[in-house]
Amino acid sequence: MSEKTLTRRTFLEAGAGLAAGAAVLGAAGVAGTAGAALDPQVAHAWGGPVVTTAHSLCNACSSKCGFTAYVRNGEIDTVLGDEGHPYAKGKLCARGYGYLQIATSEDRLTEPLKKNDKGVFEPISWDQAYAEIAEKVQAIIAADGPEALAMVQDPRPSGKYYTKRFMNALGSANVYTHGAACNLSKEAGFTQVIGTGNYSSDVASSKMTMFIGRSYADAIRPSSVSALQKAHERGARIVLVDPRCNNSIAFADEWVPINPGTDLALLLGMSHVLVTRGLYDAAYVAENAVGFEEWAASLATCTPAWAEGITGIPAATIERLAVEFADAAPAASIEPSWRGAFGCAYENSGETARAVCLFNTLLGCWNQKGGALFTPSVSVGKLDEAKFPSVPKPAAKILGSEEYPLSLSNMGSNVYAAQMAHSGVIKGMFFYNSNMAAGYSNTAFLAEALSRLDLMVVVDVQMSETAQLADYVLPECSYLERLELPEFIGGKVPCVTLRDKVIERVHPETRSCDEIFSELARACGVGEYFDFTVEELADAQLKTVGLSLETLREAGGTASFPDAAFEYGKTPKWKTPAGKIQFTSEACAAAGLSPYPVWVEPAVMPDEAAGTLRLVGGKQAHMSHTQTANIADLMQITKDYDLDRVWLSADVAQRWGIADGDEVLVSNECHEGRVRVKVTQRVNPTTLFMPSHYGCSSPEQRTAYGVGLCQMDFVPFRIEPGYGGICSQEALVTVKKVGA
Amino acid sequence: MARYGMLIDTKKCIGCYACRVACQRLNDLLPDENFIRFEEREEGVYPSVAVEHVPLQCMHCEDAPCAAVCPTGAAHIGADGIVAVDQGRCIGCLYCMAACPYQVRVRNSETGAVDKCRFCVVTAHESGTQTCNCVDACLTDARIFGDLDDPGSEISRAIAETHAVPIVADLTKTKVFYVR
């Protein structure tokens, strides 16, 4: 066993001269920011064999933090977060270190597989797999048109480009992201109010920030943790609204233990206080918004006392929070969240998102220091049409756009696609970097729906539950073994980053996403849209913004665009139909919702008399969804601390005769399973919290298999009206001590 | 000679395990070979509840029970006061694990030998840097490493300012100090 001698300080000292040299690229308005690049000779000086370095992007979650890998004898020796990457800021989280193990995992997919008549996977050559898939694709198109094909993908730098281009080249617009199981409702709700799907809270500079179901300390982006810590240390008021007292409490002033699913009532109650007491920014609203009067009138009944009855939060607390917000405005906001409480959780999630934006509007905090910001981003310009020809727009719209008119076309409702597979409308589906079957909705329904497909192709690095269901499994090389397209990141200073190859391919029969979809396209007869390499495309994309692959690498994998930097105080151009912030929405009314957000009860509500609890999921800092559960370093943490336990309120546990560590049976109409309990004061008594990473049912993931319960086993298949979200927390369960 | 020590501010600890996994990966440890152990303390009654995460690791005791009970001299106090385990001399008797009041020693399941936090000793000695991987990795700068005998060092100043103390008073004269 060797003790490693590399540390950040050694490298930064060693590479300081080089970093200074790389800081200016000479391209107009572009500066390299990522910091040190290590001279191999300098590395040699501390004794080891020559070390090479590569800047790349993590793949353990969607943040894709930049890091520098130091590679010795073909193996990764050390990784350090890149100082210049806006999300990493020199740090990585536990997943960032642990997920490196995916490259050498014994559970990697190493060759293409085809399921035989007995349902058993057998190896197949790439060429044979491509030929068979292409034949089935063409048969589906001939019989039912390209609309009978669909793709589900969790966006990654290359993946989002190649999967969409492949499907569009085949004539199908049915490209779904994981969004409906993540942030679709939130982004679609925001879009109805502010004309864009996201904003960022200026937490570090705020006087008050409220988080609703979002925990920076449990779903970590290092820069966000740092911003929260700064805010706390500056004395900002940080409020956590969450049925679980999450780990961000270290840097928060208050935990508001809301009944899950009722955040909308809290928002309406706080808005009532601001509006009826005249504490809102009336001038800002008059100048920037339409429809305020109608919404204001509807708030008359949404008193704090009314909200208390729904949320379980005392009326006095609701009043106080609203007044504190008014005092702190405009350096205050409700943080936009991610998946959290209203990304995809309830039948009222989209409307909750609307109310969040309206509350921020009452504060007049948009683009104000410490408020809620629309930060700029830079995007790829026009490419050479001869080399990178545009793909004709598919004739039909993405399936689900009529049924869920508020869903966003760049995400779509993946669960609607599954429903269409179930009903036979969609015949062929591709999955890239997506474990839909285990994470997006009811697992039994999804397994049945996907099993009805004529063709199911999964591209992944390990045998996920989704891959288990496939006809063909195509093995990708890991994120450490491939170059991807540049990733553009919006922010106060927008930038572009690069996932670069860190190590050679561990398994020779694995291929990269760009290769797989280009080769599939050629086999399917649409290869004319893929007559270039990923290097050529990356370089061409970067040249449209004054960079090149070479200059971005020299800059340390991250280059910023200071000329496009954000400025406080500028009123954004509202991209809504009215050209202003919309308190009322015709689209929402047309979709059968209220024109302005009003209280919408979740589809199901826990009942104390019946002994039902709402099943609430959430992240732990060392895990991301299901994809990290098979990583030995990370799963060992779960095992060491029994982190697959469900959280039950101490009060409820006492009444039900359940002690900490007891094994319980969790059951509902969908599923039942045994798991141990963490009895805690940190959870709302109407809630059963279940970490959402566990319950892996794929035996080929030997580390993760059989540990804990899978939240989605218990969640009934349901789609949020209008918005198309998966309603991930519209599930009630009972809990009974085993053997009692 | 330096007298190395560490300060851990649990008020800044979010219990994210970044230190543990960074330590494991950068020191090339097995997945179940964890040099940092965590205790989570919950205080108060719903909804007025406080949470404390306490990372524990080798305290590099000046009065080290592990070294006292080791029959072979494998566990010993080495240069700069860093408690070390000579892997070649460890016979895997596990006396030291039983003796450690902080329960922060681990058995390597491949070699059978016992190991624990080394204060990234090779880092400190061979490359001349005075830091540890866990200190570098910490997202909230909850950890400080340095020379306790240097009154001007960051750690000495921080201990004076924060009144950081050992996890258990004067039990074994530890060199890891806590702000709680």
How would you summarize what this structure contains?
Chain A has 740 residues and is α/β, with parallel strands linked by helices. Among the domains of chain A are: 113-179 and 428-546, Rossmann fold, CATH 3.40.50; 184-375, Dimethylsulfoxide Reductase, domain 2; 613-737, Barwin-like endoglucanases.
Q: What would the keywords be for this entry?
A:
heterodimer; A: about 750 residues; alpha/beta; Rossmann fold; Dimethylsulfoxide Reductase, domain 2; Barwin-like endoglucanases; six-stranded mixed β-barrel; about 30% helix; disordered N terminus; B: about 180 residues; alpha+beta; Alpha-Beta Plaits; three-stranded mixed sheet; two-stranded antiparallel sheet; 9 strands
Tell me how many strands of chain B there are.
Answer: 9
Total helix count of chain A? 23
Broad CATH class of chain B = Alpha Beta
Q: Oligomerization state of this entry?
A: heterodimer
Structural class of chain A: alpha/beta
Helix and strand string of chain B, N-terminal first? EHEEHEEHEEHHEHE
**Number of DSSP strand runs of chain A:** 28
Number of self-contained structural domains of chain B: 1
> Would you tell me the overall average pLDDT of chain B?
94
Give the N-terminus to C-terminus distance of chain A in angstroms: 48 Å
- The chain-level structural class of chain B is alpha+beta
Q: What is the CATH homology-level superfamily of one domain in chain A?
A: Dimethylsulfoxide Reductase, domain 2
Q: Biggest interface: chains and residue counts?
A: A-B, 56 and 49 residues
Portion of residues within helices of chain A? 25-40%
Task: State mean pLDDT of chain A (0 to 100 scale).
Answer: 94
In the CATH hierarchy, the third-tier topology of chain B is known as Alpha-Beta Plaits
Overall CATH class of one domain in chain A: Alpha Beta
- General shape of chain B: globular
